[in-house]
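quick one before i forget lol
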Amino acid sequence: MIDPKNVHATLSRHQLADGLSMVMDLEKSHGSWLHDAVTGEEYLDFFTCFASWPVGYNHPATLDPEFCSAIELTGRNKPASSDLYTTYMAEFVEAFATRVSPEGFNHHFWVSGGSLAVENALKVAFDWKAQKVGVDRVNDGNDLVVLHFRQAFHGRSGYTLSVTNTVPDKIALFPKFDWPRVHNPAIEFDLEGNVCNDIEASEAETWAEIEAACEKYKNRVAAILIEPLQGEGGDNHFRTEFFQKLRGYADSEEALLIFDEVQTGFFGSGKPWYWQHHGVRPDVVAFGKKSQICGIYAGPRVDEVTDNVFVRSSRINSTWGGNLVDMVRSTKFIEIIEEDNLADNVAARGQQLVGGLRGIARDQGHISNVRGQGSMVAFTLESPEQRDECIRQMHARQLLVLASGEQAIRFRMPLVVTEAEIDQALERIADCSPAGV
């Protein structure tokens, strides 16, 4: 066994290893706390592996012998679940489709990786649109486009490279499609939680750009793609009225409305899906991260084309069809979230964190635009340098957080986070905000 002190040196001999300086102790980490195997220090984890770990580390229910046996067995055998089925897969699909997917979304597809979830959502739309308008009218699909938004992050694979536009290094020099990209009318909040920017003017800019794009690419827009809350791009929130009008454009332009919920979905907002806070139903949703298994679910509009990708064999597929051990873990997490009432817990803890951050902002004056829903909370600082220094100071105080956009900090708490842990985080944040640095 490699000594924890040698982990970074060992990795660096064979790969880029510029991640966190700690080495995670998988056995001693617990709940909202990451244990560093080198120093023995514990970090309050408001990073949660890029918003992918919902129930805390070593949740007591995951020590159940039956679950441990299932994890061990499915870890020893990895079937091609796209074509070779097991009871474990059937139990997962039944649990997800009936207890996580909203009613009326009857099509599901499983894959490994959030980028590939979005990728396959776009393939659903391309196939649907081409058959809708006639394959000969869209050059066998090659003339189809995806309308998407500025400051979006949808992944780093094939199609998703063309719709991601956050950090240039993530997409530079890789060939991309020139698809229509429009303004993202993000809300700014004052310290009372009220909208404080001219949001209607910002949305009007978006509508003008969408209409111009629809005219330029007439009958060629296959999908309107958006994160209902843009994470990496700045934790950008949008109004319900905005989503309602997007729904209208998708309908009038014969395009599928796709929500990328890879970061926001699976109870992180206090509801199973972030879009449910706005009540605007999409046609396709991509998911991943907290759900452990990635994929898409789709609703009845897809069935307007009878020979769609969900009924025609091998139109969308992968060798593994996801990962069976992830399915077993996801099934257990669904059970834990329900039994421990974690959706309600994280909704309350999110409100607590937002309220506390607004108090810090009033006291210190350097924090603005505090915003959030459930486990996903953020605030903005006065400059990128100020933001980066705050993150360094938080890390020094054993609080793990993430950057967001150019000058924001985002928090991604586990659903099990407690009231006391939020209070501890607020104390550390107050010490690390610019007035305290």
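fyi The two ends are 40 Å apart (CA to CA).
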